[in-house]
């Protein structure tokens, strides 16, 4: 399976990446090599398993100063799929399914955006939030949306979330990860001809629990200082 993935990645990253992968021996076992190749590489390899680990974690190319390894590329794809599934659950109003993806110790924040002179950063508040929820508050919000008392969401909003520019910043396999992504939400209500458009950057932290990744922290940095939306009864 690893060889198939490496072959596909080789086509995507081009000839130079393929050359580096071949030199590192990624995706090949000594038995799969020709006799001549096996002889030439015998001194470089003591065991297939050790070589496999080295090739997966070894950087194969660099983008903007960031070194990318096969392991990091595969992990980035995994978190992209996680975020796509999350977006689909929320757009389909499956709040219970979304809630099951959260870690019990989650911190869920949206700082207030502020205007600053020049290029001073950060340009958002560190102590004021549009919402600052933990797992208990999120549970209350989810349960309320399933009742007849969530007036702001009767009828429910129609939303379409677009997730892009997913970047894996930190990664410890089967332990923790830090992921940044961009989010755009289109929102319409009932027969209203007007719609809301909310965009921003998400700074997410994940914790590996019982064989799956759980969202343990989210900070949503909204792009607008003044939100063009009636309320924040939806999840970001």
Short description:
The chain has 236 residues and is an alpha+beta fold.
Structure report:
It is a single chain. The protein has 236 residues and is α+β, with helices and mostly antiparallel strands. The protein folds into two domains: 2-63, no CATH class; 73-222, Nuclear Transport Factor 2, Chain: A. The chain is built from six helices and eight strands. The longest helix is centred in the N-terminal third of the chain and has 23 residues, at 2-24. The chain is globular, with a radius of gyration of 23 Å. It starts with a helix and ends in a 14-residue tail after the last strand. The model is unreliable at 15-53 (pLDDT under 50).
What topology emerges from the helices and strands here?
Layout: H1 2-24, H2 35-41, H3 48-57, E1 59-63, E2 66-69, H4 70-91, H5 95-99, E3 102-113, E4 124-133, H6 135-145, E5 158-172, E6 176-188, E7 195-209, E8 212-222
Parallel strand pairs: 3-8
Antiparallel strand pairs: 1-2, 3-4, 5-6, 6-7, 7-8
End-to-end distance, in Å? 36 Å
Determine the CATH topology of the largest domain: Nuclear Transport Factor 2, Chain: A
Count of runs of 4 or more consecutive helical residues: 6
Q: What is the 3D form?
A: globular
Report the radius of gyration as a whole number of Å.
23 Å
* Major beta sheet, strand line-up: 4-3-8-7-6-5
Counted up, domains total 2
Q: Class of the largest domain in CATH?
A: Alpha Beta
Give me the strand/helix succession: HHHEEHHEEHEEEE
Largest sheet entry: 6 strands, mixed
Proportion of residues in β-strands: 35-45%
The secondary structure category is: alpha+beta
Please identify, by name, the CATH architecture of the largest domain: Roll
Q: Would you identify the regions where 5 or more consecutive residues have pLDDT less than 50?
A: 15-53
Into which percent range does the helicity of residues fall? 25-40%
- How confident is the prediction overall: mean pLDDT? 81
User: Could you give the count of β-strands?
Assistant: 8
